Each structure stands twice: as C-alpha cells, then as structure tokens.
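Fold Annotation — chain and its backbone
Next Lines — sequence and tokenised fold

***
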Amino acid sequence: MLYKYEFCTRLCYSSTMFKGVYNLEELQEKRFYIKEIADLTGLSEQLIRKWENRYHIVQPERLDNGYRVYTFDDLLTLKELKKFRDQGKSMKLAIQATVAKQGTTGLIDKLNQVEKSPNVEKMVEKGTVYDEDGLMFLLRQSHYQYGLDLFLQNTVRPFLEEVGDLWEKGEWDESQETVSSLVVKDFLTQVSRNFNFNLKAPHALGFCLPDELHEIPLQILLLQMKMKGWRTTRIGASPKFSTIERLIKYMQPQKVLFSASTVIPFQQNEYLLEKLDQLAKKYAHILFHIGGEGIWDYTKVVKPTYMHVSFSVEDITTSTE
C-alpha cells in the first residue's frame, strides 16, 4: 500500500533507530518491543496495553520470556489510531478511519464482535436439509430472546457468515445457500414491516447497486437505522440506474445509502461509481453513503468525491455533511 511505503520512508529517514538501516521489506520482518513502539508512536506503554486488551486492536506475539513483540503492521495501526484520536475522534470512529486508510475490515470486525448465539449451529443444521419452517422458528426464537439489535449481531450475521463459508468450501451447494438466505430475508422483511416509526422522522432511502443481488446487508443496516429513529425505504436487488435517479428525485430523502456486497456491479459497469458520485453532486442537499465489502476493494483504486464511504450505522447516522 502507498501509505505504508510513505510511512516506512519517513521512518527510515527521520528515526535514529532506522536511519540508513532498514528498507520496507526488512521492516516487514522486524519485531518491536513495546518500548520501541511507544517511542515511535508517542503512546505510553500503559495506553498501548489498554488498547490491546480492551479493543484487541493489535495482538502481539509473546516470547518465551514473556515480553511482547509487535509487527510493523501493528506499528502502523497504532500510529494511525493515535493520529485520529488526536483529531478528536472517538475510539470507534478512530478505528473505522484506520480501516479506511489501511483498506481492511478486521479491526471493525473485532470491535463489533459479540458472542454467537447457540441457535446459529442449529440453523445450519436446518438449512442443510432445507427445513424452512425450522429455520423460521429459530429466527423467531432468537429475535424474541435477544431483542432486535443483539439478534442482528449474534444470530443473523454469524449465520450468514457460516452459510457463506459452507458454500465457499463446497460443503453446501447453491440451492442450500439460496433457500437459507431467502428465509432470513423474508424474516427480516416481516420485522421491518412490523416496525413502528414516526412519519415525521428523517428518511433514508436504501439501494442495492445495479447487478447486486445480495439484499440482506442492506436490510440489516436499514433496520439498525430504524432503531435509531429513522424512517427507511429499501429498494430491491439490482435496480436500474434510471430507477435510482427517479426515486431520489421523487422521494427527496435526507440520506441515500448504496450497498455493494460484491464487486460485481463495478465489474459490470466500470463507470458506475463515477455515475453515482455525479448523482450525489447533483443532489448536494442529500447525504450519500456507499458501503459493503465490494466497495472496500474497489475504492483502493477509485475514491468517490461527493459520497461518504461508510463503515457502520453510527458513521451514517452521525454524519451531517
């Protein structure tokens, strides 16, 4: 990554520890003691340990003598976090900003990690044998037991991850993945329809991108926004670009959300991100956000100017410009 090369260059030329000694490849292999990390980042050893234990931001190796040793990537992570904390960002927003700079989502995953519901494994068993009623029962049970917010985090997301892993490993075929996903989608649709909201609440309009068929991440996001007092509208999978334009013009929401779970939309239309960005420019009074796993890889190459690349419901609901 470019930022990693630039940071390495600054280290090599500005630090007495590295001056004229290490190149980028050698720094990648080097291990640092906590005192070295503290000196290079400006963080105290106590604060590094606190971030390490509370947020699991870095996971240093332990030598036989008990000393911690950190990688060069750990150094970069802590350096970036300190910069964003110094700018006044909350710890969560600082982690999200670091993710954007590094182009990885691992820190967010750790930050948002919750214990998986025991119903997830039972749901996998039901999905394996196409037991739709059994799946629906377990979803209802977990929803009732945990409440919507925790249910989305400890049941829905882990189950979808399990389904994806099973499909990728060839242990499930496409039909099992499709049936299980449809049951989850239908259940979340029911929950959304039964959700009471204020007609005067701010309005968020959510779209999957053209050629994007994965709707559930957008469903989850919009449900989370409803819990924060928003009125939401979800447009189905793979809408035409002209449909997106017309609905934004007609509905005039406070926020527009684009979901890119895969890179397929950008592979199908290499100018799609540019067109969406121009749409955001045209409706400058509306806040536009784009997110999802597909956008992380794509925005390493091309970054939007008028849209926010967003990480979480907190990032979306707190942004005002």
